[in-house]
Write a structure and sequence with these properties.
The complex is a heterodimer of chains A (314) and B (476). Chain A is mainly alpha-helical and 314 residues long. Chain A is built from 15 helices and no strands. Chain B has 15 helices and 22 strands. In chain B, the strands form six sheets. In chain B, strands 3-22-21-18-17 form a five-stranded mixed beta sheet. The longest helix of chain B is centred in the first third of the chain and has 25 residues, at 79-103.
């Protein structure tokens, strides 16, 4: 396959995942802001902006943190070059560039959703519309993944696409966890802490894991259990462990079809020796923040190595 | 003529009776409940938008992509009409290829005094580095689009030959798919020649022209596109997809070891046949426009040493500019030894003093076009232009007469389109697509019908608000 096409597929799915994760983050914040006092709500919106790494850009455009400003900035802010509208435009232009390597089903799912979202995000999103917009963004992800799963040839293009999804998802889950942990840190004694279960529930909502976690833990909300779930539980498709295992599968399949293993696979193994077999207690001992920072750096290094191994750039 | 009410309508005769070609279609049309037709008309638009069949309009930042409006009333040609047309087209395309070979070799036609040498010397599309070189298989124009207009029951004229990179074939294919999806019963009632195997025929035709460096096995064919912002990107992707070819951009390609190779995830891989949708001047920054990032540095050297086939060959544009066009009857006769089966539209070359004088006197009646222009830009349609527009054009014409030709305003035929108020006649033209390979000349029955959607308008170009129709050639 053309290297440029592989790059387009990889980034098409990274942006799709990023748009979806951003929508989840906003949905969770919205819920929190509705059920809490003004001070908590403001802190919540501030943390959304911080999690997305947009603090400087946001504060250049706004003086305070309120829901409507935050979600409009994140979704469609003209001084936010990484807004969701632009992300979805990038999903579509990458899909267009890789048009002959994706099925019509996938293309139509992308194009249909892009037309809808681009229109929804063309004008400011008010209080009454934000719920609909966010669920439209999530639905876009669901539809594209569904069409992809049912119609795409399982060749290298499939694995580049999936690699993009899991790299991005791991990045997003790790960032959300890190940000919440940082906010809670001053008052956190980790074992059995029930200081602010609402904040921890928030983590679960942001990674779409609230239902699954409750099911597995009989509704017990506590920091240790949640960190274990989001970091280590291989059954949960947005956990770091799950994303790593899926990414490992993609790299193995690419190595198999190319007959050589790249540097990305070597970095993956190196990371494995450090991360596998860790228990949640060991993670807390070394410090969750330090663990996550290391995780994010390794994840990003693997993404760069994929681009080099498969000649994404001339 | 425009506005004189003497146009030939392809569906209805002067007395309002349905012509035989449309008899069955009209019966079907009249049986359909009007709300059903209205709904289908809206559906067609959605289909095109969803599948992304769009084109980009240059100079319109806001609307990066637009739909070419589709009209759901088919344009119908009888089997007998098509037989005649295809004979004429084949003759013309054969002559164009022989002409190009001759131009880049001994120039017999100039030596014989049948074509003035200045037309070559001053021709921007003429490529000195094609001189003495014979492309693989001897084919210059692998893909040709011949633009035809109709003025009467038995009168077809060639308006333009497109020998560089004719576009529009994806609309021919998608229009048919859309029609079959919307009105399946129509196609069981009326026997229409199929067009759907065009991509396979194109793939076969290109694969038949491998270069000397081809190493055997399955030839690697790639479509070269300027990229996703090009107005015809949809078509480039569509054709590559349907042919099972790679879709490459200049940045994917590099000359390695005397071959043009594309950067794959496994390293560089040679290309045998390149169907390029990039103009000559952007093809090789080392040879032509040094600022081009759309092409491949060094591709012309690889081409000349037999490392790749480029379709269409560089330099074919010399055969389709409008000054050469006026010599086509002579050209056809010179190379085929036959009278041209398809006539040209009468053409005044403004480079000639007498012709210029006539054109200046009759600007309000004529259509004046730039010799190298295309897409309906830079032209004057006398009868629909204001006095001021005509005066402004007169200045340009006097300043550079050799840059223009003029033609009478033809009484273009009409074919009805579907409107909210019922059927309404609009002017149409026709672009059949012709494939040329060492195995022969292959014409897909039908082609792209372009239709001027504005009442009375003669401009069918999509960039100027024209639409398209499905084109049917009936089976006998």
């Amino acid at each position: 396959m053309l290297a440029r096409t592989a790059n387009s597929l990889f980034w098409m799915f990274r942006y799709l995942e990023r748009a979806e994760n951003t929508a989840r983050l906003l949905e969770a914040a919205l819920r929190m802001a509705l059920t809490r006092d003004v001070v908590t709500a403001e802190a919540e919106w501030r943390s959304v902006i911080a999690t997305l790494g947009l603090t400087r850009a946001y504060e250049a455009a706004h003086e305070s943190y309120d829901g409507i400003s935050v979600w409009n900035f994140v979704l469609r802010g003209s001084t936010n070059p990484g807004n969701v509208r632009i992300m979805f435009g990038a999903v579509r232009s990458n899909a267009r560039a890789a048009r002959i390597n994706i099925s019509s089903d996938v293309w139509e799912a992308v194009n249909d959703n892009w037309m809808r979202l681009d229109k929804l995000l063309a004008r400011p999103v008010g209080q009454g519309a934000v719920g609909e917009v966010l669920s439209a963004i999530r639905r876009a992800g669901t539809q594209v993944h569904g069409a992809f799963d049912g119609s795409i040839l399982r060749d290298e293009g499939y694995h580049f696409s999936r690699a993009g999804t899991y790299i991005e998802r791991a990045d997003s889950s790790a960032r959300i966890l890190d940000m919440k942990y940082f906010l809670l840190l001053p008052s956190l004694s980790y074992v059995g802490s029930s200081l602010d279960t609402g904040q921890w529930e928030q983590v679960l909502r942001s990674v779409a894991g609230a239902r699954a976690y409750s099911w597995l833990n009989a509704g017990q909300i506590e920091a240790r259990g949640i960190v274990e779930f989001v970091v280590l539980d291989e059954r949960f498709p947005r956990s770091l462990a799950f994303c790593r295992s899926a990414l490992r599968g993609c790299l193995a399949a690419l190595a198999f079809s190319h007959g050589v293993e790249g540097r990305a696979a070597a970095l993956m193994r190196e990371a494995d020796t450090r991360i596998s077999h860790l228990t949640v207690d060991q993670i807390f001992e070394q410090g969750l923040h330090e663990f996550l920072v290391d995780f994010l750096a390794r994840n990003a290094a693997i993404a760069r190595a994929i681009a080099e191994d498969y000649r994404f750039h001339a | 003529m425009h506005g004189r009410g003497s146009n030939f309508d392809e569906m209805f005769d002067g007395a309002g009776a349905t012509r035989p070609a449309y008899a069955e279609y009209c019966r079907w049309f009249n049986e359909q409940p009007p709300p059903f037709l209205r709904r289908k008309n809206r559906e067609a638009d959605d289909t095109f938008r969803r599948t992304g069949i769009t084109f980009n309009v240059y100079g319109e930042n806001e609307a990066e992509e637009r739909l070419i409006p589709f009209d759901m009333v088919p344009r119908i040609i009888t089997a007998a009409e098509w037989r005649k047309l295809s004979k004429g087209i084949e003759q013309r395309v054969r002559a164009i290829n022989s002409f190009l070979y001759d131009l880049y070799h001994r120039q017999e036609i100039v030596r014989a005094g049948r074509l003035p040498e200045r037309l070559l010397r001053g021709n921007e599309a003429w490529l000195a580095n094609m001189v003495g070189f014979t492309p693989p298989g001897g084919i210059y124009t692998h893909i040709v689009g011949i633009d035809l207009v109709r003025t009467g029951p038995d009168e077809f004229y060639v308006l333009e030959d497109n020998a560089r990179t004719p576009s529009g074939v994806s609309y021919m294919l998608e229009n048919r798919e859309t029609m079959m999806g919307m009105f399946p019963d129509l196609f069981s009632r009326i026997a229409v020649e199929s067009v759907s195997n065009y991509p396979r025929r194109l793939a076969r035709s290109l694969a038949a022209c491998v270069p000397p460096a081809f190493e055997g096995g399955k030839p690697t064919v790639a479509v070269l596109t300027p990229g996703i912002y090009n107005s015809a990107y949809f078509e480039h992707a569509f054709l590559a997809d349907q042919m099972g070819a790679e879709l490459v951009e200049g940045c994917d390609l590099r000359v390695v070891g005397g071959r043009v190779q594309m950067r794959t995830t496994r390293g560089y891989k040679p290309i045998d046949v390149l169907y390029r949708r990039v103009d000559d001047e952007f093809l090789d920054p080392l040879t032509f426009n040094p600022d081009s990032v759309l092409g491949v540095p060094g591709i012309m050297d690889v081409y000349r040493s037999g490392g790749i086939t480029i379709a269409n060959a560089p330099g074919t544009g010399v055969a389709d500019d409008k000054a050469i066009y006026s010599f086509m009857p002579e050209i056809v006769e010179f190379y085929t030894g036959e009278r041209p089966l398809l006539p040209n539209v009468e053409t005044w070359r403004c480079a000639d003093k007498d012709a210029l004088a006539y054109v200046l006197d009759n600007l309000a009646e004529l259509v004046v076009k730039e010799v190298h222009g295309s897409g309906g830009y830079g032209m004057l349609i006398g009868p629909t232009s204001s006095k001021r527009e005509i005066a402004a054009f007169r200045e340009k014409l006097i300043a550079r007469p050799e840059n223009y030709i003029a033609q009478p305003t033809l009484a273009l035929s009409t074919c009805p389109i579907y409107t909210a108020a019922g059927l309404a006649p609009r002017h149409v033209d026709l672009r059949p697509f012709v494939l040329v390979s060492p195995e022969g000349i292959d014409i897909t029955p039908g082609g792209l019908t372009r239709v001027a959607l504005k009442k009375g308008s003669l401009v069918v170009n999509s960039s100027q608000g024209g639409g398209t129709k499905d084109t049917w050639v009936l089976k006998d």
